[in-house]
Design a protein that fits this description.
This protein is of the alpha/beta class and 189 residues long. The protein is built from 7 helices and 5 strands; from the N terminus they run βαβαβαββαααα. The chain has 2 domains: 109 residues, Rossmann fold, CATH 3.40.50.1390; 36 residues. Keywords: DNA integration, DNA recombination, DNA-binding.
Length: 189
């Protein structure tokens, strides 16, 4: 038996699900999964329960697109997974549904725009890194220790009476960082 299953989400506890709940119920959803969690959060347990409850032929219904995905690419990924499983998707506010050819077309245009956006970001990032390298800047974090400090640390570590932990504390780094800069040294107390 085909079901229309709703998913409603608010970003904070002081927001209310009433509008979404009422709209989803009017749209024929007998079962509605609800949660109050930021869309940026990767942990959305009610959404996971909802996705597991969906069966082939069912339709996942949301009030608005932004209630489902953390980003456009995440939304496209979720809907593509639903489509592979034979599950429809409907967004009431945007009037998008993937049960018809026209609805799938609209959604695939969104998917193409999402991929285009990712490619533009990648190209801009690569161009920015190339420009920085051309100006002599290297990417990555700045080193924790300079060459002078590394020489001092090596000299201190030659003295077996000085604990590695004390040297690390003195320079404000971890023992692991010391070992990284001075090479592999047998750990001491």
């Amino acid at each position: 038996m085909k079901q229309r299953i709703g998913y409603a989400r608010v970003s904070t506890d002081d927001q209310h699900l009433d509008l979404q709940r009422d709209t989803l119920a009017r749209a024929g959803c007998n079962l509605i999964y609800e949660e109050a969690v930021s869309g940026k959060s990767t942990a959305r347990p009610e959404l996971e329960k909802c996705r597991k409850a969906l069966r082939e032929g069912d339709t996942l219904v949301v009030w608005r697109l932004d209630r489902l995905g953390r980003s456009l690419s995440n939304l496209v990924q979720i809907v593509a997974e639903l489509e592979q499983r034979g599950i429809g998707f409907e967004s009431l506010t945007e009037k998008i549904e993937t049960d018809s050819a026209a609805g799938r077309l609209v959604f695939h245009v969104f998917a193409a725009l999402s991929e285009f956006e990712r490619n533009l970001i990648r190209e801009r990032t690569q161009a920015g890194l190339a420009a920085a390298r051309a100006r002599g800047r290297a990417g990555g974090r700045k080193p924790k220790l300079d060459n002078q400090q590394v020489r001092e640390i090596k000299a201190l570590l030659r003295d077996r009476d000085i604990p590695v932990a004390e040297v690390a504390r003195r320079y404000g780094v971890s023992r692991t960082t010391l070992y990284k800069y001075v090479g592999v040294i047998m750990p001491r107390q």
